[in-house]
Amino acid sequence: MTTAEAYFREKRALITGGLGFIGSNLARRLVELGADVVLVDSLVPEYGGNLFNIDGIESRLRVNISDVRDEYSMRTLIQGQDLLFNLAGQTSHLDSMQDPNTDLEINARAQLSILETCRKHNPGVKVVFASTRQIYGKPQYLPVDEKHLLIPVDVNGINKMAGEAYHVLYNNVYGIRACALRLTNTYGPRTRVKDARQTFLGIWTRLILEGKPFEVWDGSQLRDFTYVDDAVEAFLLAAASEEADGRVFNLGGADPPISLKDLADLLVSANGGGRYEQRTFPSDRKRIDVGDYYADDRAIRSALSWQPRVTLREGLARMLGYYRQHLPRYL
Amino acid sequence: MTTAEAYFREKRALITGGLGFIGSNLARRLVELGADVVLVDSLVPEYGGNLFNIDGIESRLRVNISDVRDEYSMRTLIQGQDLLFNLAGQTSHLDSMQDPNTDLEINARAQLSILETCRKHNPGVKVVFASTRQIYGKPQYLPVDEKHLLIPVDVNGINKMAGEAYHVLYNNVYGIRACALRLTNTYGPRTRVKDARQTFLGIWTRLILEGKPFEVWDGSQLRDFTYVDDAVEAFLLAAASEEADGRVFNLGGADPPISLKDLADLLVSANGGGRYEQRTFPSDRKRIDVGDYYADDRAIRSALSWQPRVTLREGLARMLGYYRQHLPRYL
Predict the structure, then answer these.
(1) DSSP code for B151
(2) Chain A residues interacting with chain B (CB cutoff of 8 angstroms)
(3) Does residue A37 carry a pLDDT above 80?
(4) How far is B191 from B199, CA to CA, in rounded Å?
(5) What confidence tier does B153 reach under pLDDT thresholds 50, 70, 90?
(6) Closest by alpha carbon to B252, among B264, B270, B234, B267?
(7) Distance from CA of A153 to the nearest CA of B (A)
């Protein structure tokens, strides 16, 4: 066990969105490291929370079903925590355009309310916020570093931008230690695969395992991908390091950027078969698409010694293996 | 009358925050140009709205007392308008820290709701949004141009950043023509002078006219100042120009940047007497102060041929003249 890992033993950690994709993988790791873990999740059906995500570790942590918009339950839950992994969010770009107010409530207002609660009731807590590359909008240069302007192309991006900014502000003004990770496409076991709401890799995985063709929209877009275990490692490093306080970090992947078409081929190859259809972008998605994106993640590699280790080929294989076994629990 | 001015004849224009400082000056100008003007204002006591601000033009426009947070009244008011000057806002940095949720409701949520209303009920409207230099936070270089990163140092700055971003988004995604002006310190007749809530120049003006010393905090900070008539001109140019759609523009002033100490001396000189005391920053203000700020406003000068004309010396004299006559109406 490294020093960073020892840091988590007996630490009290609250994970918002803890039954979701990244939250539950993080919970598993924290439990393994001996932390005292509480998960908050609203289990909104369209979001990523799934009780099966903590299958096998239910007895080693506590689950509290509630919503980050519920100020009073959050007040009780935040008190006494050493660490707050703040991952709850509305993550669908398209939903944020159709119901912008709900997105604002979750991604902006609830975040402000959580930070106010920290300030009033637990100023010593350390907060790591799950931000997103979506806040950059359409890249003006590549790879995108943290100095890139934020010009979000959807309501979700704007509200996440505000949510992230509150965290940095509360760090700088009130000394609530907080930092943010700007996640790129994160993939792996326990992601939502039911539909394309959170990530296209989810629905691709579902369809290929069901023996159906999946759809690749355009296909030429370059993207980068973080395997969930590598993302979890970044959350741990950020939580354990004072170096991170007040900062925002891009996450990238272990592989160079890849086009969606090449990714589709890689998925078919990792699955030992399957097929997809290339088609043009649906218009409601096209207008909020950002085109090519890949991160310059040298800041976190240098400041926190983060190093993504799982290659796409390996990660996709693990993801397929997981859903080959558990797909019905995610439908 | 120039072409731009002729543009406003018989145009139906709604001004949110229309009884406030800039809103009421804009209303006067629009009425003069023959526009059909409706003002919305909530007259929240701590904000800048004041019925006296439309003294003498009451019969030439309509006033509707309501709040931009009130979705239903806004829905009715926005329908049928050609122009929406969107100036309503919570503008106190300090209040935004003490009551962050109210700031979010007004500066972020109500803006999103207004834009949704435009999208659903009046997609042909042209919107000009009053943004603020506050969203830049502490400048990383000077003068600050529109490419400068946004790292707000208070909750108000974050919510205004989101409010501005919604406008650009709705322009880009839905074709609701919208643009934003990032105002710096704006001054002149009809600003709130009761206290230091909105602008220090307000309380300085009040105190000097009452024969009392005013306070200069620190004094070395460099700032730029826009006389309100010049700001109004920028709103008109932005409204009349397609060039502005989807863009954000800094406003600067007619003079070079000036230190607050020199500004205080200029005010005393313009007043023909008066005194001030220099003191250190109060701690609650210091932590959200941005230090030196002045804008690079070449973008709006070039794109819209905007040219601030009123010098500080002249503007301060006009402001003092106004309040010498009307101070009791603002206390």
Answers:
(1) B
(2) 97, 100-101, 104, 108-109, 112-113, 116, 147, 149-155, 158-159, 161-162, 165-166, 168-169, 172-173, 287-288
(3) yes
(4) 8
(5) very high
(6) B234
(7) 6
Residue among A194, A217, A182 nearest A291 (CA): A217
Residue B215 phi, psi (nearest 5): -105, 135
A106, A109, A113, A118: CA torsion to nearest 10? 70
- B294, pLDDT greater than 60: yes
3-state secondary structure A247-258: CEEECCCCCCCE
Query: HSE of A185 in the Cβ direction (CA atoms, 13 Å)?
Result: 24
Name the pLDDT band for B283 (thresholds 50, 70, 90). Answer: confident
User: Do B108 and A162 count as a contact with CB atoms less than 8 A apart?
Assistant: yes
Cβ(A89)–Cβ(A80) under 8 Å?
Answer: no
Per-residue model confidence (pLDDT) at position B215:
95
Question: What is d(CA A163, CA B42) in angstroms, rounded to the nearest whole number?
Answer: 27
What's the Cα-to-Cα distance from B31 to each of B12, B57, B108, rounded to whole Å? Answer: 11, 8, 29
CA atoms within 13 A on the CB side of A214: 27
Residues A167 and A180 sit within 8 Å (Cβ to Cβ):
yes
- For residue B154, give how far its alpha carbon lies from the nearest alpha carbon of chain A (Å): 7
DSSP per-residue letters across B204-230: HHHHHHTT--EEEESS--EE-EEEHHH
Residues of B in Cβ contact (< 8 Å) with A155 = 112, 166, 169
Cβ atoms of residues B114 and B264 within 8 Å: no
Q: How far is B247 from chain A (nearest CA, A)?
A: 11
Helices in chain B by DSSP H: which ranges? 3-6, 21-32, 71-78, 93-98, 100-104, 110-121, 155-174, 200-209, 228-240, 260-271, 283-286, 298-304, 312-326
DSSP letter (8 states) at residue B34: T
Options 3.40.50.720, 3.30.930.10, 3.30.499.10, 2.60.40.1740; CATH for A3-191+225-254+295-310 is 3.40.50.720
CA distance B310 to B312: 7
R_g of chain A, CA atoms, integer Å = 19
Tell me how far apart the alpha carbons of residues B4 and B238 are, in angstroms, rounded to a whole number: 10
Average pLDDT, integer, range B303-310: 98
Report how far residue B5's alpha carbon sits from residue A184's, in angstroms, rounded to the nearest whole number: 48
Domain layout of chain B by residue ranges: 3-190+225-253+295-310
User: Which CATH code for domain B3-190+225-253+295-310?
Assistant: 3.40.50.720
